[in-house]
Amino acid sequence: MVSRYKELKRECYEANMQLNALGLVICTFGNVSAVDRPSGAFAIKPSGVPYEELKAEDIVVVDYDTNCIEGSLRPSSDTKTHALLYKNWEDIGGIAHSHATYSVAWAQAQKDIPIFGTTHADHLTVDIPCAPPMKDNLIEGNYEHNTAIQIMECFKEKGLSHTEVEMVLLGNHGPFTWGETAAKAVYNSKVLEAVAQMACLTLQINPEALRLKDSLIKKHHDRKHGKDAYYGQ
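Above: the chain sequence. Below: its structure as tokens.
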């Protein structure tokens, strides 16, 4: 019997394999999910399965309450985080979580990533936010569910839009990214890691490096995303 979620599972599988191919994860860490809004379900990597052993049929499908719909393996330990974000941010189609070195380093330093250059401005007009470390009462509670709360509270407190800023660092933890598709979420993970590395090297070369000036931020962002964008085909 052909699964009704075959294409969703394939999308999720390919995104997870790309996360690994881009060097954004180590060992079995990290995960990507892809959502099917009409059916109220999403597919996600199974917990602890090595990428070199992962197959499309291993991908687990769950509903927004993390009840298993299809799959014999346990879903990622971060499934509750993905579920709550999908519930609250109805316009996203994929979520990625990695353990990429430079992104994690900034998260462990509990620092926003400053907008130093045009590579950053091609994607965002603001610093990449770092949420404060999770409060003790949330850690002791429903931890993975509360991780999504930690992300959403960060965006609310900083006055950010999740459709304009598709990435975040969690203090002492690491990065989460999202997008219209699972592939876009992985793309955003790669961008985040590249910008994190560039910012780290910038501060090593010049600890007093200045933030990119507003005119260059606007120019580089608008030429890709503005009403008169002209980058690309």
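The chain has one domain: 6-225.
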